[in-house]
Structures are given as C-alpha cells and as structure tokens.
Amino acid sequence: MELSTIYAPIQDDLVRVENRLKSVSKVDFLHLSELLDYSLKSNGKRIRPVLTLISGKFYDYNPDNLLSMATAVEIMHTATLVHDDAIDKSSVRRGRTTINALWNEETAVLLGDYLHAEAGAMTASTNNLRAIKLFAETLKTISSGEINQSFNAFNLSQSRAQYFQRVAQKTAALFSMATESGAVMSQAPEESIQILIKYGYDIGVAFQIVDDILDFIGTEEELGKPAGSDLTQGTITLPAMFLMERYPNDNPIKRLLDSNNRQAEIKKAIDMVRNSSIIQECYQVASDYCATACRNLSLLPDKPGRQLLIDLAEFITIRKK
C-alpha cells in the first residue's frame, strides 16, 4: 500500500501541518529564513506528524492544538536530522545537500537548536503540561542516544541489548512521543494512551531496523545517500551484528579498525549481508515489532484511525526508502 493511500483520510490536516511548517520560516532575519525554509522543505514521509494526527482523533480533541502538536513533532524531527548531519559530517540526506554542507557545521548546530526551541514553543502553545513535559523528556532521551552512539562508534563488542537501547533512544522515543502527544491532545483515557505509546515505540523500533537493512541493500538513488553509511560512521547496526555473529573469524567489519581501505571492507560486508539470510532475519525482527505494535489496537474506539495505524505498520516493513 502506498503512503498516499494511507494518508488520504487525514490529507487535509496534513496540508494544514505543511502550511504551519512554512510559516515557521517567516522571520525577519533573511539568512535564518532561508535556513528554516530549506530544512523544513523535506522529501520525508511525514510519518511522525501523521501518527500524532491519527492518535489524536480517537476521542474529543481541539483541532488547533492537535495541529500544533503534529507540527511540533515534525519540527523536532527536523532538528534531530540537522544535528545528526552536522555530527556525522554528512553531505547528503534524502538526495539533498545537507545544511552543514551548504553552509557549515556551526550554522547547522545553531539551526538545530533554533528548531528545537520552535518545537518547544509550539508544544507549549497547547497549554498541556503533560505534552510539555513529554517534549522535554523526549529531547533528553534523543540527546542521550546521540551521545551513546558517539561513544560507541566502531565498538565491535556492542551487545544486541545496547543496540536496542540506542534505537529506543534515537528513534522510538520520537515515534512514541508522536502517538502519546496525539492521544493526550484528545483527552484519551490512560489505558488508550498507553496502547498508543506502545504502538509508537514498537513501530519506531521496526522503522529503525528497516532503515538499518536499507543501508545494506538500498541503492544511493533510493536512500538519498551512499549505501553503507552506517558502517562508514562506525555505527554497528543489527545486520552488522548478525554478520559478526555468523562469521566470527573472517569478517570485514572486524577488519575496519585496522584497514587502510575501509571502503573496500565495507563493500565486502555489504556483499556478504546481501548474499546471506541476514536480511530476511532482520526483516522478521521488524515484522515482529510491528505485529506487537498492533496487538492491542482493537481496544481503541472503532474509528478509521485504527485501520490507518495497522496500514502504517505494514508499510514500514515494505518501504524501500
């Protein structure tokens, strides 16, 4: 199923979110306006604000507050990407030149800070204390995940538990914030909020696993960046862990630290993963998380959003970019 089909029932609200994103760049300082406009004009899928919109429509909600929260979630996501690219010194994302490559790393860091502040202000505009606290806690969690990843670059002894902790911090936290904040905006009962938190967390983990798979099997055109980017940065993902477990002695990943030609070793690792059952095994892990995510959705009110969440979970495991 295509995302456009899944998004159709909430397309009008998604357009309103896009319009709010455009309004963020309308500031007096020309250079800041250009930076905001460039960063928020994304080729992304907008999955996170969509999750907020869907999660916020099961009960009674204030449309303006829900739109503000969905917009804040997307701005926060954009801020994390801008910071990630600056930290990793990435030059391309989603087929576009990054902020740090077009301007410089210092500008990218400051822009990311500004975007986080903008997201916080938009969250505060809802006057919902739980949402405001959630924003702050999520930002702390994401930052912890980035620090965790930085200190574990090229650490080949990482356990799967460490991998999933990093995924929880860097990716799943924002997905669960998206669903929780939407539910909170609709004054949902706590039981429903917890179901949506669990859903967001689980599909967030699945989303990251699929991202990690695509880094091995995707083309540069599909990914908008070179394949093997994670290994280039020293980020050990689930496919890499499976490869090291399967070939403990003769393994290109284990040779990365000592190699004078890291790209050659990365290419070997990619080829070995592609020519094994590792990809299927990783997809199975992602599918299991998606299945778990949907397990309790039947306890939510019987509204169109329930099926949309199921469709989104299915899309995550079949996407190509």
Summarize the structure.
This protein has 321 residues and is mostly helical. It has helices at residues 3-7, 11-24, 30-40, 47-55, 63-88, 99-102, 105-124, 129-151, 160-185, 190-217, 220-223, 229-232, 238-246, 262-274, 278-294, 304-318; strands spanning 92-93, 96-97. The chain has 16 helices and two strands.
**Average predicted local confidence, pLDDT:** 95
Q: CATH top level?
A: Mainly Alpha
Strands ordered across the widest β-sheet: 1-2
Question: Could you tell me the number of beta strands?
Answer: 2
Low-confidence region ranges: none
Rg, Cα atoms, Å = 20 Å
Distance between the termini: 14 Å
Quaternary status: single chain
The succession of helices and strands, N to C, reads: HHHHHEEHHHHHHHHHHH
User: Which bin fits the share of residues in helices?
Assistant: over 70%
Q: Helix segment count?
A: 16
Architecture, CATH level 2? Answer: Orthogonal Bundle
Largest sheet: 2 strands, antiparallel
| Beta-strand share of residues | under 5%
CATH topology: Farnesyl Diphosphate Synthase
**Name of the CATH homologous superfamily:** Farnesyl Diphosphate Synthase
Shape estimate: globular
- The structural class is mainly alpha
Written account of the structure:
The chain has 16 helices and 2 strands. With 321 residues, it is mainly α. It has one domain: Farnesyl Diphosphate Synthase, CATH 1.10.600. It has a two-stranded antiparallel sheet. Strand 1 (92-93) and strand 2 form a beta hairpin.
